[in-house]
Amino acid sequence: MSVVNDYPQLQTGVGFLRAKECSRLFGIEPGSWLRWVREGKVRQGVLLSRRNRSWSAAYIQELLDQAVKGQWPIEPPQEAGQAAKPAIPPSQQRKAKKAA
Questions:
Q1: Which secondary structure element, helix H or strand E, spans residue 49, and what is its range?
Q2: pTM higher than the cut 0.90
Q3: Domains, in order of start, for the chain
Q4: Which residues, in sequence order, are CB contacts of 18 under 8 Å at separation 6+?
Q5: Residue 36 backbone zone (phi > 0: left; psi -120 to 50: alpha; other: beta)
Q6: How do the pLDDT tens digits run along the chain, 100 residues long?
Q7: What is the distance between the alpha carbons of residues 97 and 28, in angstroms, rounded to a whole number?
C-alpha cells in the first residue's frame, strides 16, 4: 500500500499537510523537509496559526508528480561559477545581526 493513499487530501487536492506528513511522503526526516524549505527547494508554506506551518495538498501533489517524472530539481539552481552557501541557523543569524 502506498503512503500517498494514507492522505485523502492528495487525492482531492483540498486541504493542508504539515511538515511531518510532507517528509513522510518524500521518505525523508522532518528536519530535512524544513532544511529544504530554508534552502528554497520547496515553498515556505502557509502559516495557519502561530506555530502551524502547512503546505497545500495541491502543491505537494504537484511536487510528487514532478519528482516521479524526474523534473523536480532536488538542488536549488546555482549561478554559473557561484558556490552554494551553507544554510545559517536562525540563532546564528540573530547573533550576526546583533554584532553588526
A1: strand 46-49
A2: no
A3: 3-75+87-99 (1.10.1660)
A4: 52, 53, 54
A5: alpha
A6: 466 667 777 777 788 999 999 999 888 899 999 999 998 889 998 998 888 899 999 999 888 888 888 776 555 444 555 444 555 555 666 666 666 6
A7: 32
